[in-house]
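User: Teach me something about this protein's shape.
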Amino acid sequence: MTIVLSFGGGSQSSALLALILQDKIERPDYVIFSDTGSEMPHTYAFIEDKVKPACELAKLEFVTVTSEKGALYLAYSDRDALPIVGSKLCTSEWKRRPILRYIKERLGYGPNERAPPDSVTQWLGISTDERSRVSKASPLWIPTAYPLLERHLSRDDCHRINEEFWGMKPLKSSCFMCPYQPVKDWQYLRLNEPALFQLAKDMEIRAIERTGHGFFNDNTFTLNRLDFNKTLDDWSGIKSTSCDSGNGCFL
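Assistant: First, the predicted structure itself:
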């Protein structure tokens, strides 16, 4: 049985990896990160500065896979389109499929072959306050296990584990132009990653011209029209998702 840890770079999967590196949970055969080419810079920095060196020191293989379609934001930008809340395209094509392809190749199976379900188990970092994600998380033929749930660990527990092991709490992992992020995350992007914020604004302008739809449910609100001097209460008219831990995708 091959055990694979799917690593997203956020709090839960980082805490799970920390427990593994401390020998508090059995070691998987390797750790796999599916890079959409559109992750937040702080996620890339955390992986390069903290995660990869720790795995290398522990002799735990860390694998990065990518989609054959290239960077996620380019796939949308080239079509003057945006990711849509409720669509599974981002998850299926830029997260699950690259992972499945790599695992099957590594097990010696071709792209059109199905490996026996007892040949591999995927671990996902889902904590007790995210139980609703479990029903959406198991991709195709790979059985999935949830070590954090099995140990009754919450998001707060993950924060504590991360601070003790990594010396920090990893910021939320997501794509910079994710439609699930609430306004406060757009504010963070505007203040901390202005070039990416501008790129997202340009994508939205072209998408509205072609499709009539922007990042929000009401085009009265767009990234160009938002008044970022307002408080969060002043933005109550914007119906956006509350995604603090990757609830929009399976990692």
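Now, about its shape. The beta strands are 2-6, 30-35, 62-66, 120-123, 144-145. The longest helix spans residues 89-107. If you'd like, I can walk through any region in more detail.
User: That's plenty for now, thanks!
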